[in-house]
Specification:
It is a single chain. The protein is an alpha/beta fold. 60% of the residues lie in helices and 8% in strands. Strands 1, 2, 3, 4, 5, 6, 7 and 8 form an eight-stranded mixed sheet that branches. Strands 9-10 form a two-stranded antiparallel ribbon. Strand 6, helix 5 and strand 7 form a beta-alpha-beta unit. Helix 8 crosses helix 17. The protein is elongated.
């Protein structure tokens, strides 16, 4: 019994790390522990938080808090304060008085320490140190100023010691003040004309990198992976029981719907794109550039029901819609609906975009048109119709001119370190692998059963006469149906290099637009349902289908005139 008692590890000393957005909480805890984060969910929710273990201490890194905000992540971070006694309050030296005014009322009665980050931005000297001492004396808790990116052993030990004997936060408002507010000088991003142009260019950079980078990698990997799995698929089809073949290698004409047909190529096409998007956006976040983009774009997108932050989430959907939809948990209640709608309608994911480009390239060759011109036409029409859709469907509150962007002070730009870059990108990659992929497995099984029992054939047969309304050949009905399950069904429009049912340039544009926008893929739809509720999701799908139909009709009969 004694040996069992001695072998039992001690209960971890849990410290809740709280602070406003962009104060450097994650960087501080990573530097403090020297470890990478594990993930867990907030109690009673699907929102994940990072946990760092160092010895007998476990740090829970909560999402950044935006005061006066109704975002789900802010609400859960505040709720978490009711469940933990010891807190590590992180405030930013550059806006020290404001951060303390906002955050101290939330931690009254808790025990803990205040760590002041970005201390390297404060002019060193006796005056700044005396200000910290005044604040410390007034608050009755320990204040430790640090540069979280290069945390010294002395500072690390001081924080550890202070957390072992934390003092109680008794005041929600201090008399003492630091008396400074430090912001970098305005740069090109703050210029009235140049700033928005730079922000838009930086925003579209991930999509361009996907087209010319990630897709090139996928083109190279595809035949290699196919050579590995083709013999396995052949063996399954030749000798395995029929009920297993339905799930693993189901076919719809020349299109495979089983786990072995679809699963490997999801990683081939989607994972490089998701990874590249995550790394580029990680650079933006770790460098402080993301906040400047948000502030610059906010006045431009507010009339469409979005905030500057939401635009970045929509662009994330070009990698994978699932992490993008999940990231809307940090949206305010009035802008979350428009953000989810924009992702479902206008974010051409890593399956949809390559398939669309392939169809347009085949159409360009068949019609002796420029593929680049058709691609630009498609992207421009997708952007324009997405904005019209949002303008007509977003609520007045979201579009209100008084709806200002809640953002911290203008951030200092800094070169991202490799660890900071990966920390920012890892969350998106984990969401793709552990949240999108399980849903995708379910979709494979459902799609296989639908294909086996002829439901997809029946749906395409029903839609064949409808295609005439869009000036499309009847054969294009099947790709439209398949694209509602998985977006690479659009590839069927380029079968035999576009010769199986030749189309004009206008018809090709209409076909890829209708197939891509009519409905989000099932993985996206299920994620939206889980995040927002199924009643809301069904309303969104019906609304999107009706608008997409109208926009496709306009393109079908007006596109011929333009082209």
């Amino acid at each position: 019994m004694l040996s069992q008692t001695l072998a039992t590890p001690p209960e971890p000393h849990t410290v809740l790390v709280v602070g406003k957005e962009s104060v450097g909480k994650s960087q501080l805890v990573s530097s403090l522990t020297g470890r990478s984060a594990g993930e867990t969910n907030f109690r009673g929710s699907t929102v994940t938080v990072d946990r760092y273990r160092s010895g007998a201490t476990e740090y829970i890194d909560t999402p950044g808090i935006l005061r006066s905000s109704d975002t789900e992540t802010t609400r859960l971070a505040i709720d978490a304060l009711n469940e933990h006694d010891v807190v590590l309050l992180v405030v930013q030296a550059t806006s020290l008085d404001q951060d303390l005014s906002d955050m101290l009322p939330l931690v009254i009665g808790k025990r803990g320490v205040v760590v002041v980050t970005y201390w390297d931005k404060v002019q060193p000297g006796e005056a700044s140190q005396e200000a910290i001492e005044r604040l410390e004396s007034d608050a009755g808790v320990t204040f430790i100023p640090v540069d979280a990116r290069s945390l010294s052993d002395t500072k690390r030990q001081r924080i550890d010691d202070a957390l072992l004997a934390p003092t109680t936060f008794e005041k929600g408002k201090l008399v003492a003040r630091a008396g400074w507010r430090i912001e970098p000088k305005p740069g090109w991003m703050e210029h009235r004309v140049v700033g928005p142009l730079m922000a838009i260019t930086l925003l579209f950079l991930p999509a361009l990198a996907t087209i010319y980078g990630a897709n090139a990698i996928a083109d190279w990997l595809h035949p290699i992976v196919a050579s590995w799995f083709d013999p396995i698929i052949a063996t399954v089809n030749a000798s395995w029981p029929s009920w297993l073949r339905i799930v693993l290698t189901a076919q719809q004409g020349e299109f495979g719907y089983g786990l072995l047909n679809m699963g490997p190529f999801l990683l081939v096409w989607a994972f490089p794109t998701v990874l590249m998007f995550a790394l580029i956006l990680g650079v933006y976040k770790a460098s402080g550039l993301i906040e400047r983009i948000n502030v610059t774009l906010h006045p431009l997108v507010r009339p469409f029901g979005l905030s500057g932050r939401d635009v970045v989430r929509v662009m994330m959907g070009f990698g994978c819609n699932v992490p993008a939809v999940i990231s809307t948990r940090s949206c305010s209640s009035c802008s979350r609906g428009p953000a989810v709608s924009a992702i479902a309608f206008g974010s051409a994911c890593s399956y949809q975009l390559p398939a669309t480009l392939a169809v347009l390239s085949a159409a360009a060759i068949a019609t002796e048109t420029s593929a680049a011109w058709l691609t630009c036409m498609f992207l421009a029409y997708l952007l324009a119709t997405t904005l019209v859709y949002l303008r007509l469907t977003s609520g007045r509150q979201a579009r209100n001119s008084l709806n200002v962007l809640m953002t911290p002070s203008r951030p200092f730009m800094q070169w991202p370190t490799p660890s900071a870059l990966w920390r920012e990108a890892a969350g998106t990659v984990r969401q793709f692998l552990f949240q999108a992929m399980p849903i995708f497995v379910v979709i494979c099984v459902v799609a296989s059963l639908l294909a086996h029992f002829g439901v997809l054939d029946l749906a395409s047969q029903f839609l064949r006469p409808v295609m005439a309304l869009f000036d499309l050949p009847a054969q294009s009905a099947l790709p439209v149906v398949l694209a509602s399950v998985r977006k690479d069904g659009i590839f069927l429009l380029s079968a035999d290099d576009g010769l199986s049912f030749p189309m004009t340039s206008a018809q090709a544009l209409t076909a890829v637009y209708l197939a891509g926008v009519l409905l989000p893929c099932l993985v996206t739809a299920m994620t939206i349902g889980r995040e927002t509720g199924w009643q809301t999701t069904f309303k969104l799908l019906a609304r999107q289908a009706s608008f997409a139909t109208g926009f496709a009709l306009l393109l079908a009969w007006g596109g011929a005139w333009l082209l």
